[in-house]
């Protein structure tokens, strides 16, 4: 049992700017942190200060996370949740700990969210791995008085807390007999892979290879493309000391949220294209460290782009990326073997790409099993 008094990160930094998009990359990022958190959850706030009058945040939860029942009295605070991914069991309690209300709230359920008046003891348990809520409550926040914990509920991090969490699940299951719950820690079979093309051309063979990988994604695996390489500024270490340009922040956030990366790059003038090398420069020290990575060499020529991929290997070794050899393949893409959807039609090449994706996925899952 981990000690909850030990220092660890409980919330991410609030994003800068007046307008913030709640996109898949942001949600994937907070989910990734929740998987690694000793508490099995992570907050991604949007409010810039604890003193803000309205607090908004993403709350990513894993099924083993224990949220001690509580209420907000000093000052009284109303709050609301909307489920963006997964599902939770919501509980409202009487003063003596009796369950007054118990219901499933999920992204695919009739109940999608809940609005709660001040002063009510309540709690949540994630019913699915990687559950994400959008939460709103009144501010300000003061750690010493934010929550009035229920005296009938055990303290987080104790053996009694886990027993109480399981008892709540039993009570929920008794009231929801059709629901089958997993009481064990999540297996986290779902994965996200980030695809990066080293070419700025939308119609490049590299983009076709990566589009094909996306179309061949195994069950439970999401493949997303980073499409802002052309917006990245020239690498300048001085910018690390000030406010980073937004495209750089986006790149690093997408890399942090991804479980693994697949790249495909052409060779230009006997080397890596400058724009792709610039992207890699922005990952030094943050982004690719110990990140599983594979590549698809889409050159249609025998021995094509081999020098480029040797250079890529040198860079990936320098940043200490986890290069997965079984996911590094030649997948030659001919122009006459690309369809209107810009995916490869050659069965042999498609099979090679599928094998590389599966090898990368299995590598990530094997690493998880070792943890």
Explain what you see:
The structure is a single chain. With 371 residues, the chain is an alpha/beta fold. The protein folds into 2 domains: 24-175, Jelly Rolls, CATH 2.60.120; 191-370, Flavodoxin domain (Rossmann fold), CATH 3.40.50.360. Helix content is 26%, strand content 24%. It has 7 helices and 15 strands.
List keywords for this structure.
371 residues, alpha/beta, Jelly Rolls, Rossmann fold, 2 domains, five-stranded antiparallel sheet, five-stranded parallel sheet, 7 helices, 15 strands, elongated, disordered N terminus
What spatial order of strands do you see in the largest sheet?
Answer: 1-2-9-4-7
Q: Which homologous superfamily in CATH is the superfamily of the largest domain?
A: Flavodoxin domain
Output the number of helix runs: 7
Q: Let me know the average pLDDT.
A: 88
pLDDT under 50 segments (min length 5)? Answer: 1-7, 180-188
Q: Beta-strand percentage?
A: 15-25%
How widely separated are the two ends?
A: 15 Å
Summarize the main sheet: 5 strands, antiparallel
Count of distinct strands: 15
Computed structural class: alpha/beta
The appropriate CATH architecture of the largest domain is 3-Layer(aba) Sandwich
Return Rg in Å.
23 Å
Briefly say what this structure is:
Helices cover 26% and strands 24% of the residues. It has 371 residues and is of the alpha/beta class.
Write the layout of secondary structure elements.
Layout lengths: L23 H13 L4 E5 L8 E8 L8 E2 L7 E7 L1 E7 L5 E8 L6 E4 L4 E6 L4 E8 L9 E2 L9 H17 L15 E7 L7 H11 L5 E6 L19 H12 L2 E5 L9 H8 L10 E6 L8 H13 L3 E9 L16 H24 L1
Parallel strand pairs: 11-12, 11-13, 13-14, 14-15
Antiparallel strand pairs: 1-2, 2-9, 3-10, 4-7, 4-9, 5-6, 5-8
Helix pairs in contact: 1-4
